[in-house]
């Protein structure tokens, strides 16, 4: 693969991941959701738990592909910092909607974590080789494991890994400003951000592998083997440090990065090697303005998930009508979420047709 070639599979996967993120973030009814379309209550892994780490993995891959020929160019670190701050600022804007109550604002979230991971990973990529990057990722997951499992949670006198009763929650209670997603703890808090950076690094390593001159089939085989090894290692690590998205545990990093590598390897083989790419068009369109699609979903939700004229919220009214017509509540909730994805598809499709690609 030349440094100027685009991976259609990566573009499509980035878009499909954003679409999946919208589906799981905006069900038609919070009370009627298929189990795998909800986050795990604590330990475990559902389809929804895969969405965020997959996107960070693909962010890491994109960093390697985008910056591979830019090392040494002046002003890159400044551009990385500015882009990270822009993404973070947009995340804050979404957290302030619709009331703009600065006294009760959350300072963390999905875009906030993407901003941090992008900034750290891109800077690391420009200043080091893959061996150093792999060492940093290994250090982050091992140290996080040791910190979380060896240091007793203050106030309890023992190691705790329960919701709101663990070292990460304790650190957030002291140092994280604003309100927290779960009241007394936040799944995107301070300590758990460190292993999420490792997720981005695993994507960078995969991206650098794709830049080598090895045959495409060899690249695919390596991705599949690496994915199986990583996911298996994460599973066994999870026996002593449970797979947990809320804590972004080290085992969670390995399992999800392994699955992401397997998924990308499959897409790469089908789309880029075999050339069967026509069906990926929706993903490519979403992926061409991925952050825009994510932001639009939050903005459009102010209409599609709120009451009109003081009556029943639109989503509940539609789901209620579908269930009254005989559809199952969970199926109706999913259908509404998919229709909402379609609504968000329209403006990004228009941007794609006009060749407008908004980069924060």
From TrEMBL:
Transmembrane segments: 12-38, 50-68, 80-98, 110-127, 134-151, 189-209, 221-241, 247-271, 283-305, 334-352
Superkingdom field: Bacteria
Record's keyword terms, sorted: Acyltransferase, Membrane, Transferase, Transmembrane, Transmembrane helix
Every Heparan-alpha-glucosaminide N-acetyltransferase catalytic domain range: 6-151
Single GO MF annotation: acyltransferase activity
Pfam families documented for this protein: HGSNAT_cat
PANTHER family: LD22376P
Name assigned to this protein: Predicted acyltransferase
